[in-house]
Design brief:
about 50% helix, 5 strands, alpha+beta, TATA-Binding Protein, 6 helices
Length: about 160
């Protein structure tokens, strides 16, 4: 079999196409990830999210913020915080359905500050988070959690 040598232009085109495909794949979020822009400033949105978690009868298990940690060291970076959300009765049901899925709890909601000072919310649907573990009971719980998490973020983002 005889191979024809590709032109340098064709090789460059193929290399560029592969590079762009790799970048698109690397930047694409995981399945079920949604980002919602809001009209709120970062601190206000974090507060609203905390109130919405409580109002929707979930628990704020933990909160982490690299921007607040950096500020304590005198370094200014755009606001970001991860609020971790769950509830004990749901945790018990989740673990009864799948012990390995326990690594996914609590569920996370990410708050980020944009260049315009407005903040966004990013989260992954519980159905997508728990999908790799399968099982009817776990997926039923995930489908029950989907609208709760959706309400939490939509309520926090509302005007």
């Amino acid at each position: 079999m005889k191979f024809r040598r590709r032109s340098p232009l064709a090789s460059a085109f193929v290399s560029l196409a592969l590079l762009l495909a790799a970048q698109a794949f690397a930047q694409s979020p995981a399945p079920g990830v949604t980002t919602l822009a809001t009209p709120h400033a970062f601190d206000a949105l974090v507060d609203r999210l905390g109130r919405s978690i409580e109002a929707n009868k979930m628990g704020l298990v933990a909160q982490a913020s690299a921007s607040r940690g950096a500020a304590a060291r005198g370094v200014k970076i755009p606001g970001n915080a991860v609020l971790m959300v769950f509830r004990n009765d749901l945790a018990v049901r989740m673990l009864a359905a799948s012990v390995p899925a326990g690594i996914e709890a609590p569920l996370r909601i990410y708050v980020t500050e944009g260049p315009d000072g407005k903040a966004s919310l990013t989260w992954q649907s519980p159905s997508a988070v728990f999908a790799p573990y399968g099982g009817a009971d776990l997926m039923a719980l995930a489908r029950e959690l989907d609208p709760i998490i959706e309400r939490i973020v939509r309520d926090a983002a509302a005007r």
